[in-house]
Amino acid sequence: MLFTVDPSNGVAIYSQIVRQIKFAIAEQTLRPGQLLPSVRQLSQQLTVNPNTVARAFQQLQSEGIIETLRGQGVIVCKGAMQACRKQRQQLIAERIEGVLVEALHSGIEADEIEQIVRKKLKSLSGSIATIATPNPSENS
Amino acid sequence: MLFTVDPSNGVAIYSQIVRQIKFAIAEQTLRPGQLLPSVRQLSQQLTVNPNTVARAFQQLQSEGIIETLRGQGVIVCKGAMQACRKQRQQLIAERIEGVLVEALHSGIEADEIEQIVRKKLKSLSGSIATIATPNPSENS
Amino acid sequence: MLFTVDPSNGVAIYSQIVRQIKFAIAEQTLRPGQLLPSVRQLSQQLTVNPNTVARAFQQLQSEGIIETLRGQGVIVCKGAMQACRKQRQQLIAERIEGVLVEALHSGIEADEIEQIVRKKLKSLSGSIATIATPNPSENS
Amino acid sequence: MLFTVDPSNGVAIYSQIVRQIKFAIAEQTLRPGQLLPSVRQLSQQLTVNPNTVARAFQQLQSEGIIETLRGQGVIVCKGAMQACRKQRQQLIAERIEGVLVEALHSGIEADEIEQIVRKKLKSLSGSIATIATPNPSENS
DNA sequence: GTGGTCTAGACCACC
DNA sequence: GTGGTCTAGACCACG
Lengths: 140, 140, 140, 140
Known about the structure:
4 copies of one chain form a homotetramer.
Chain A: H1 13-26, H2 39-46, H3 50-62, E1 66-69, E2 73-76, H4 80-105, H5 110-128
Antiparallel strand pairs in A: 1-2
Helix pairs in contact in A: 1-3, 1-4, 2-3
Chain A binds a DNA duplex through residues 7, 12-14, 38-40, 48-52, 54-55, 57-58, 68-74.
């Protein structure tokens, strides 16, 4: 559970936190039912204001990703993993589409794009490795 | 020269204008030496605040894409087309890389991504056609 | 005496407990003089913090619904049933009024509300049956 | 557009604001496309902190009720009226059901409830009058 | 002028 | 200890 934020990043800090938590859930670093780090704890770790973390939590709650147990803390909801994965894949699909449209508009040939993608994939897939997909069994 | 903006788009309006002008230059709809529409004209056409258009022009000027000729108006700079194309292709390359990293992180296999890309390319390249690449002859 | 709580319910757990005990008293599942389950027992049964149960008991005691007999435990007070029923009916009256005001404000016609109520009553009164009203003889 | 809040009300101030704005939209006091009062303006009028108003606006935006135009302000979304009415009627239906269940459980007879409702409706509908439902034509 | 974000510090109810 | 809410005051990008 190593979260980091970049305050001079353009994207809001609370959004970065949201994104990383969703990420962690999608990767099952955070699992349904598990307690999240507390607001104060996380705010210290990231050296941001507790309000900022709280805001991220509120958004996640409004999306049904997490659930707060009064006085105890915040846990990951049941269907959260699936939701997070789905969200992300949809987002990625959109972005792929967007980039491709842009690329085609800019006059690159389809073949060329395909080659670029293939080359990049090769160089990237080495460095990233597939940490990502443990079997998605989930109960409780 | 059909510009449009979406005020509820998240992207700043002036950025949308900048982007579209660069686009038009890259496509040679606007050619070096050509006069741009005036701030007032464009602001009416887009129904936005003249300040907003002016701001877009400022940015383009600061990037050396356009230049103001006192008493005449604003024209496209000489090297603008190359610059715009280059910017765009660089931007596209970055975005492709970004999307691919994200996609791999999210646990999609490289093969799968390649397939998605190929499929999308096929469906898109039909609808877009190659309006885009007139021969890029231009000096400087 | 089947109590249950929902920690992710919005309503404070101790309030849920208070409510259910009052409920049980009103229904005469718990009768005056009868011993309540101990804090420890109840907290285990509900898998909540003993403090939470204790707090519920404190509130009930402060309302004069229950009383602690040193060394014996906690019992239901004499006038508790009437008090609980009265509280509840008052509460219900308030809530009915509240809902009706809200409904009228929202532009539903009085006739329409009446119909909704009638329909709901019909469908509900079947499923609920009248477990509820043993004769309310009791002294004090 | 007379908004008021009660800080010692139990319900969060920002929620009260959200509720009243939805209300105003449902009643067409605020119409689609119309500009809402600005954050600062509203915060002064209600004598609350601008952040509190902003929070209300954010929630409304996340629900798709309003839309912010950068630098201009916040407007009511197209389908907002229908959404607000629907939300409210659903909420009321739930509350009616809840009250009725409670009432039946408490041993009041269905007939009796019906009478109570009818009586209350009569006394209330006089004082409230039907300000509420102008014809819901909406375009643009 | 507009809203969006962040910090700091405070108080609350709850477990 | 937990999160939820509010205030105060600041800075930013945008129109």
